[in-house]
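haha ok so turns out i had the wrong file open the whole time. this is the CORRECT one, sorry everyone. sequence first:
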Amino acid sequence: MESQINKDERIEIRVSSQDKRIFKRAQELSGDKTFSSFIIRVVRMQAESIISEKERILASNRDRKVFFDAVFGNQEPNKNLATAARRYKSKITSK
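then structure:
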């Protein structure tokens, strides 16, 4: 399927000869047929991992803020919530 994707973008990087030897050795051991496919696969896996981790952290921080704002904020309950609370209290006290 990958060969069907139009690859019109190019990335060029410079690396030390030691890094390139390590990358080539890893590519040989990984079973990837080409050096490019190895680099793309490894970089993509790492990129997806970083994105996933950072999005979890951002969502967690956003959720934490929403929770603490709801619990400790100075907002008055809306009309529906106040009505529901009165209804609940009347049912509890009538038992």
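DSSP finds three helices and no strands in the chain.
again sry for the mixup
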